[in-house]
Specification:
mainly alpha, about 0% strand, globular
Length: about 170
Amino acid sequence: MPRNFKEEVVFTAIMAGLMVFVMTAYNVTMAQGFSNGLVLAILSGYPLGLLVAIILDLVVVGPIAKGLAFKYIINEYMRKKTVLIGITISVLMVLGMVTCMSLFGIAVEGQLAGPHVLATYGHTWIFNLIVALPLQLLIVGPIARAVLGKMQAASAKANQPSQTTIEDED
């Protein structure tokens, strides 16, 4: 878990960056199929999707997911196992982000109007959840936590007082 703002920013950048890239590629491929303009369509949709995802993560979904997790789900047993806290928050984050980003995706595609908007949203939501949950739990989450762990270890090492011996002083 990030311990300060700098760690939160790095963790969110890695998490959102990878998740949005893969999910953008997935959604564009699902909509267009494998076509000549696929790579360009993925790259052109990525920046706006990333910006929206980072704002949602930091301002809306992240605080709500963490609040729900610590208030209603995480118990004393889970507090002793940080991996359980991480998995719980990850699942809640995926549920929240899929809910919001699916709406964002159909809005960007101009599919918010019409008689089948709820069916379109439901279809988009379930298909995104099917990919996002394992992607987060098995690939992106472990990568982001590994980078965060290395960052925290380097910070802890840098903050340790140097130990000098009598031999060092001679």
